[in-house]
């Protein structure tokens, strides 16, 4: 119950801010942070619960964005339809990738997902209709009331998606699906032997995770009003989506949210104040430091701290 | 076609290090191509002082050997010894490492392409109507030598056989009273040392930029998986297959499709025959 009130409150807060807030840059940056909340949560469904490391976030994200472009160019579809379609296409991509490689050991899946990024990238570069390597320019449709600007509207859309993504992840975590996925992470053979349908569960997780990543990418063309392959299939999305849950803590739905908000905000600040390269460096260094020193992320540290306090009392 | 064969041997040579680290030692070494690019930049730096790239590459191997030992030692202490869940964190660790190296290079050298100068770069050999650039021939020769040397080392010497033994059955080795960690450390050092030479070849073959490692993730892993994990002769054949198919795609469809070849081949192999052509 507390969770649902929190979720509703978050959406209401985002909408309230978008209607009343004054600083346009806040929404511009906030959109990116929320987008990372969706990506990190999506990554965690497969990577955190089942222990299969997905390096291909950028592929699903980019395909989502390009699905939106195609629909917009071909039919002028509204944003909601774009997002749904992007989720379907990316989900299918996730299903296909999973079908091909999830029977193998984890690392092969990881490498295969990198392959998916590059293949999709190359395909889009060679597809004239969506602009090829030079990219495609898009005209935003008029903004809907009650929002003053398109960025604000996208901010609210992204907030809704972030909350929806977290709800889905939480549902998976507490249901039998999550228990099955955790069993796979701890010992796949043992899980299979005790009757967990491992392949089905992995495929399901991979599909849901891919669909969420695609949905997160769908508003990107409207947000930028421009899209080109090199930046939408950037491996930096992959490393961020992987680092955020790792930093926040992978075993709880709150972990990726904490990681994404923390790291996403740091990234925004660093990009503005120093440079874009440092920003990637920060992600890489934090990832390595946390993986080495705090394997359970911030949530793990908090748990340890609470335990220490209790035992000292 | 000939071009493809030459490039293929080069691909094989840049992959042998990974073949040892990933194929034999089972370390998810995603940072291998990044280390290779690091080697290229070190070669470039030495080249500024008038060193020949190949000589520089050989001179760098002891340094990279130590670096490899350090990385493995660290990896072992933090992940392998803790046991559970090493896969996920190890992968994340190497992925993060690759990014740190790449961004570090961008910060130091900028995003521009760099190249080296030597007598054999820029000239080509005419052979029955074909013009073969010397730079490819040099890389080809070194690639062959390197692969052959490593194959001999693994099958003939005592340490080489010990490395293979670790790959086959680690508990048995431990029961025999040997220390698998030290052997693995040694092997990882060799794998990294070879990477330095591969980096030197990389900058001989063409100009290098910091983000080049991303494409080479596909090429090296494609070669290693296609070869069958840990098979040295297989690596050579797989490199040839990749090189030839890349040059065919290049001539038939144009350069913009070339980067996808390695990754496509990788996906196909993973889907159809994950144990590779020469797999155990």
Task: Chart the SSEs and their pairings.
The complex is a heterodimer of chains A (313) and B (280).
Chain A: H1 2-20, H2 24-47, H3 57-75, H4 79-101, H5 106-125, E1 136-137, H6 150-174, H7 176-186, H8 188-193, H9 198-217, H10 220-224, E2 226-227, H11 229-232, H12 235-248, H13 254-273, H14 276-293, H15 297-312
Antiparallel strand pairs in A: 1-2
Helix pairs in contact in A: 1-6, 2-6, 2-9, 2-12, 2-13, 3-4, 3-5, 3-9, 4-9, 6-7, 7-9, 12-13, 12-14, 12-15, 13-14
Chain B: H1 2-24, H2 32-48, H3 53-80, H4 86-109, E1 124-127, E2 130-133, H5 134-156, H6 158-168, H7 170-175, H8 180-205, H9 212-227, H10 232-253, H11 258-272
Antiparallel strand pairs in B: 1-2
Helix pairs in contact in B: 1-5, 1-8, 1-9, 1-10, 2-3, 2-4, 2-8, 2-9, 3-8, 5-6, 5-8, 5-10, 6-8, 9-10, 9-11, 10-11
Q: Total domains of chain A, how many? A: 1
Mean pLDDT of chain B comes to 83
Question: Count the helices of chain B. How many?
Answer: 11
How far is the first residue's CA from the last residue's CA of chain B? 30 Å
* Number of structurally distinct domains of chain B: 1
Q: The biggest beta sheet of chain A, please?
A: 2 strands, antiparallel
Strand content of chain A: under 5%
Order the strands across the largest sheet of chain B as they lie in space. 1-2
Rg of Cα set of chain B = 18 Å
Strand order of the largest sheet of chain A: 1-2
Low-confidence stretches of chain B: none
How would you describe the oligomerization state of the chains in this entry? Answer: heterodimer
- Rg of chain A, rounded, reads 19 Å
Poorly predicted regions of chain A are: none
CATH architecture of chain A: Orthogonal Bundle
**Annotated CATH topology of chain A:** ABC transporter involved in vitamin B12 uptake, BtuC
In short:
The complex is a heterodimer of chains A (313) and B (280). Chain A has 313 residues and is mostly helical.
């Amino acid at each position: 119950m507390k969770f649902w009130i929190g979720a509703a409150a978050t959406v209401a807060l985002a909408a309230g801010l978008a209607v009343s807030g004054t600083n346009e840059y806040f929404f511009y940056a906030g959109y990116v942070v929320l987008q990372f909340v969706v990506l990190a949560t999506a990554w965690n469904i497969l990577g955190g619960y089942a222990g299969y490391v997905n390096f291909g976030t950028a592929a699903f994200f980019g395909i989502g964005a390009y699905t939106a472009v195609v629909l917009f160019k071909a039919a002028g579809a509204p944003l909601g339809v774009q997002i749904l379609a992007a989720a379907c296409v990316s989900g299918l991509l996730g299903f296909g990738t999973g079908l091909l490689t999830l029977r193998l050991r984890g690392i092969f899946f990881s490498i295969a997902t990198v392959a998916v990024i590059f293949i999709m990238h190359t395909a889009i570069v060679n597809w004239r209709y969506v602009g090829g390597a030079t990219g495609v320019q898009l005209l935003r449709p008029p903004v809907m009331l009650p929002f003053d600007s398109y960025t604000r509207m996208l901010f609210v859309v992204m907030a809704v998606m972030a909350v929806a993504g977290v709800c889905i992840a939480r549902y998976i975590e507490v249901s039998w699906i999550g228990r099955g996925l955790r069993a796979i992470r701890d010992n796949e053979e043992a899980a299979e032997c005790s009757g967990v349908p491992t392949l089905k569960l992995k495929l399901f997780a991979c599909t849901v995770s891919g669909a969420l990543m695609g949905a997160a990418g769908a508003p990107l063309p409207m947000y930028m009003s421009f899209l080109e392959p090199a930046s939408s299939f950037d491996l930096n999305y992959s490393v961020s989506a992987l680092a955020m849950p790792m930093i926040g803590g992978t075993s709880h739905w709150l972990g990726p949210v904490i990681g994404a908000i923390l790291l996403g905000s740091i990234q925004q600040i660093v990009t503005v104040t120093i440079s874009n390269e440092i920003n990637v460096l920060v992600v890489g260094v934090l990832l390595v430091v946390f993986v080495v020193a705090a394997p359970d992320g911030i949530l793990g540290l908090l748990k340890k701290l609470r335990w220490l306090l209790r035992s000292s009392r | 076609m000939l071009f493809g064969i030459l490039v293929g041997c080069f691909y094989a040579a840049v992959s042998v290090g990974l073949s040892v680290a990933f194929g034999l030692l089972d370390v998810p070494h995603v940072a291998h191509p990044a280390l290779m690019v690091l080697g290229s930049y070190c070669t470039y730096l030495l080249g500024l002082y008038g060193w020949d790239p190949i000589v520089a590459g050989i001179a760098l191997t002891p340094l990279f050997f130590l670096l490899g030992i350090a990385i493995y030692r660290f990896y072992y202490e933090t992940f392998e010894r803790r046991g559970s869940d090493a896969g996920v964190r190890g992968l994340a660790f190497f992925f993060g490492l690759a990014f740190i190296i790449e961004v570090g290079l961008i910060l130091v050298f900028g995003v521009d392409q760099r190249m080296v100068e030597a007598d054999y770069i820029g000239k080509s050999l005419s052979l029955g109507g074909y013009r073969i650039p010397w730079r490819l021939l040099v890389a080809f020769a070194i690639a062959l030598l390197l692969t052959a040397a490593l194959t001999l080392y693994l099958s003939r010497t005592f340490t080489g056989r010990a490395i293979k033994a670790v790959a086959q059955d680690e508990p048995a080795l431990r029961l025999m009273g040997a220390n698998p960690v030290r052997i693995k450390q040694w092997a990882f050092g060799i794998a990294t040392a070879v990477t330095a030479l591969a980096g030197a070849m990389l900058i001989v073959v063409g100009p290098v930029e910091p983000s080049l490692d991303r494409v080479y993730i596909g090429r090296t892993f494609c070669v290693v998986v296609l070869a069958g994990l840990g098979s040295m002769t297989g690596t050579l054949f797989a490199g040839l297959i990749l090189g030839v198919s890349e040059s065919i795609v290049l001539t038939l469809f144009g350069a913009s499709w070339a980067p996808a070849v390695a990754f496509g081949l990788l996906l196909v192999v993973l889907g159809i025959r994950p144990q590779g052509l020469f797999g155990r």
